[in-house]
Amino acid sequence: MNGSAGTWLSRTGKYALLTAALILFAGPLAWMLSTMLKTKAETYEVPPSLLPDSINFEAFNRLFDVQPLMWRWIQNSFAISILVVIGVILSSSVVAYGFSRFTTKFKDRLFPIVLMTMMIPPSVMMIPSYVLFTKLHWVDTWLPLIVPAWLGGAYYIFLFRQFFLTIPQELDEATYLDGGNRWTVFARVILPLSKPIVVTTVIFAFVNSWLDFLGPFLYIKNNEMFTLSVGLQLLIGQTSQDFPALAAGAFISIVPIGILFLFAQRYIVEGVVLTGSKG
Amino acid sequence: MNNRLRKYDTFVFFLFIAPWIIGFSLFFLVPFGTSVFYAFTDARLPGSVDYSFVGLSNFKDMLDNPIFGKSLLNTLYFVVVGVPVVTAGMLILALLLNLNVKGIALYRTFYYLPTLVPIVATVIIWRLVFNSEFGILNAGLSVFGIGKIDWLGSEGLIKPVIILLQVWISGSGVLIFLAALKNVPRHLYEAVRIDGANRLQAFFKITLPMISPSILFVVIIQTMYNFQMFTEALLLSKGGPNYAAYTFVYNIYKSAFTDLQFSMAMAQSIFLFALISLVTFVLMKLSNRFVYYEGEK
């Protein structure tokens, strides 16, 4: 099992195990691909055929016909995710600089609270937040989804801080000697050296925003303002028997993240491990 | 640094962390504070101005509701059965993906993909796969002579199906275990092998203790998550059939948005928060006996 001595299992045995598990994990995704390329009639065959007779993209046409707002939802999801990413990068890096470079008793008292907020169960905050957003007249706008990202999420502050701590203090001091202040150190020294963590955070914040369902589901009632996820949920109700169209909808919601993952797998893995292995 | 400079620097520190202070106050302290307040009133709507204090009656009504017990039991099922199953699943997958064979990186990519699928798409895919008439799963099982199984429509199966779905999207936990496995020093395995230990003994004597901090972390995160089980149950079967997947958070959601009793939903949220905090605390305390931290000895 551990790479040290793998002799207990033959190489064929290992590949057999891996492939069996692979079928379990990639199989449902393959079934989605196959279903979305079938005609509607084909999906009602018993027993179902593994692959479509011929490849056709009618399902996509039907999807956009039944739900003319599809394009709108896709654009909304992109717009929200991009605004979230910008906010997260700007706010979390500034806050993380505060928590990594200052020596004050307040830092040592407040940072544990930052960590603690990572442990607050989100669904406990679901109703209290809803009440707050109602009073702010933010319900049915994107503000509940975007504004919190501009005010430093604990998770991203932690990511940035861990990285900033690895940058040698001597660089800060050299900048002070040259007449720099706290802000110049942050903007001219720390941030330019932090490209890897900025990339990781961009990807993470985008993915998390794209995957968010409960937020937009609770706070947005107007169909035109929906994100893709919430729109798809509506679609499940509308076209529950049009399997190819549903599969096509699912596929569309996966594509942006899938492409991101292809190019940035390393960063995603890094982010998960960095925040996960701190425990 | 002299005193004035130090004070100035503290001021600058607060400027830097100001976004977090505003966010923490506005999106945590204020809503949490108001929810504690509202839990003791009879406010029905989020904007209600016309309400009165009712003491503990929300909490009393919550306990009296016959669905409360059912939702709590369902939630406990996801915690007591779900967390060990999902954690074990992650660990087995991590061990598999830690195998030293060619092309393992490609396998890892495929195992992680489901984790990145939006939950609504995941549910669509599961409805396609688990569809009792036209799904691929029943078609596959029929080859072995197993008759149609109504996966999503049967009270006994819906919870296991949701737990299985959790295993399918457990890639993040797998990554954490994989990183932990890679950090176990090789020489420990060599040492026990010289002492004549076999693979299984090495796993229990070396691997498990060495990765126990990661196991604790994953168990705590998963426990908190499963206490809050809602989205999967809502989208997959609307909490049904016959309330079989109706969880505690589902109850909160229904109190607020269907019954329009926000004060009741607040009381339920506070109850859940207390429950999760208590269980997490007990887990941490218990863990001292099982978790091995390098460098502590």
UniProtKB/TrEMBL annotation, chain A:
GO CC annotation terms, alphabetical: plasma membrane
Tagged with keyword Membrane: yes
Cell compartment(s), UniProt: Cell membrane
InterPro entries for the chain: MetI-like, MetI-like_sf
Annotated keywords: Cell membrane, Membrane, Transmembrane, Transmembrane helix, Transport
Transmembrane segments: 12-33, 78-99, 111-133, 145-164, 185-207, 243-264
Gene Ontology BP annotations: transmembrane transport
Membrane topology value: Multi-pass membrane protein
SUPFAM superfamilies for this protein: MetI-like (SSF161098)
Domain ABC transmembrane type-1: 74-264
Signal peptide as annotated in the record: none
Pfam short name (any one): BPD_transp_1
Similarity annotation: Belongs to the binding-protein-dependent transport system permease family.
Protein name: Carbohydrate ABC transporter permease
Source lineage: Bacteria, Bacillati, Bacillota, Bacilli, Bacillales
Automatic annotation (TrEMBL), chain B:
Keywords: Cell membrane, Membrane, Transmembrane, Transmembrane helix, Transport
GO biological process, one term: transmembrane transport
Any matching Pfam family: BPD_transp_1
PROSITE patterns from the UniProt entry: ABC_TM1
One annotated Gene Ontology cellular component of this protein: plasma membrane
Main localization of the protein described in the UniProt heading: membrane
Source organism superkingdom: Bacteria
Subcellular localization, as worded in the UniProt entry: Cell membrane
Protein name: Sugar ABC transporter permease
